[in-house]
Amino acid sequence: MNSFSITLLKGDGIGPEIINQAVRVLNRAAEKYNFKLNFTEAPIGGEAIDKTGVPLPEETVKVCKSSDAVLLGAVGGYKWDNLPGGKRPEAGLLGIRASLGLYANLRPAIVFEPLKSASPLKPEIIGDSLDIMVVRELTGGIYFGKRGRTVQDGVNAAFDTEMYTEKEVERIARKAFEIARARRGKVTSVDKANVLESSRLWREIVTKVSKDYPDITIEHMYVDNAAMQLIRNPRQFDVILTSNMFGDILSDEASMISGSIGMLASASLSDSGPGLYEPIHGSAPDIAGQNIANPLATILSAAMMLRFSLGIPHVADEIERVVKDTLKTARTPDIWAEGYRKVTTDEMGELIASAI
Ligand code: NAD
Question: Which of 230, 257, 284 is the C-terminal boundary of a domain?
Answer without folding.
Answer: 257
